[in-house]
User: What shape does this take?
Amino acid sequence: MSLEVTGKILHKYDTQQVSERFKKREFVLELAEEINGNTYTNYAKMQLVQNKCELLDRYNEGDMVKVSFNIKGNRWERDGKVNFITNLDAWRIEPATGGAAQSNNIASSQAVPQYNDNSGTPAFYNPSPENSDDLPF
Assistant: This one.
């Protein structure tokens, strides 16, 4: 399952060499959400693993970023007790404004024909099935 979230980098941790074959780097995102005029702040601790650890190097604490991540969970048993752990494994980080996200939007909007009708209001052609009417009546 792949998810995305946008937030401010609150803290970056150093890369940890957990074992000979595994390394990880954690960071904390501050997530602000407005609901009914009230702003609620949450904090998500995420991790980058293996060769993805370097993705965080280009960003500073305080930068707004969009993070693509997967939810991963593990189960283990110790002394007869079952435990669970959940990780938010980031695999892409990009600027929240501009950067790749903006260039993708520009490229896709240029591929869609644009025109003005007689009212001078811009109109956009959307070829999605939800907007097509192919019924014979």
In short: The two ends are 41 Å apart (CA to CA). Confidence is low (pLDDT under 50) at residues 99-135. The chain has one helix and eight strands.
